[in-house]
Amino acid sequence: MDEKQSRELTILGFAGSLRRGSYNRALLRALQEETPPGMRLEVFEIDGVPLYNEDVESAGEPEGVARFKEAIRAADGVIVVTPEYNHGVPGVTKNAIDWASRPPHQSPLDGKPVAILGASPGITGTARGQSQLRQAFEFTNSYCMPQPEILVYRAHEKFDAEGRLTDAKTREFLGKFLTAFEQWVRRLQP
Ligand SMILES: Cc1cc2nc3c(=O)[nH]c(=O)nc-3n(C[C@H](O)[C@H](O)[C@H](O)COP(=O)(O)O)c2cc1C
Fold this sequence. Notes:
Layout: H1 3-6, E1 9-15, H2 23-33, E2 39-44, H3 54-59, H4 63-74, E3 77-81, H5 91-100, E4 113-119, H6 127-139, E5 143-144, E6 150-152, H7 168-187
């Protein structure tokens, strides 16, 4: 196995919810527990990323944005765990991606392998939000993993009161998802 195939990958994960009891942040923690040996998943909290404003950006990136972009740049891949709001991508998720997408063609998202998953108490499990997010990653020129998809529906039945994933089937899917993402990232290594 050559160095490219064996080196430990650094993956950055962030959740598109600021809620303390967020199912999506809980799902991200469960992903961390399931990472395969060749991968380290670091969690980034996006609560320090302000609302996008081009005037602010022109005057100099806020510290929270600079840290976010540097963390993406340093990572081999990015995992976004997001809720769905009103059949779309929540503003919090999209706002963070909008900051990270700058400047176009030279942003830390350009050419970056990404993966999307999400959890919702509803029965569609963020399906529409995930599709919409894939469109955004077309413009950022990010390589969004097509399959497998993870849609955690009826999330309130799959986590305990402490936010620990209790559903064995979902946990098994997370392992498969991460193994697939590891292969996706290694395939796209420069
Ligand atoms: C403004 C708003 C819009 C929502 N729209 C949807 C929706 O379109 N589809 C869905 O499945 N859930 C929707 N929900 C419910 C969220 O899936 C639910 O609040 C979820 O727990 C949010 O994710 P979190 O637990 O990670 O914070 C919505 C919630 C809010 C607050």
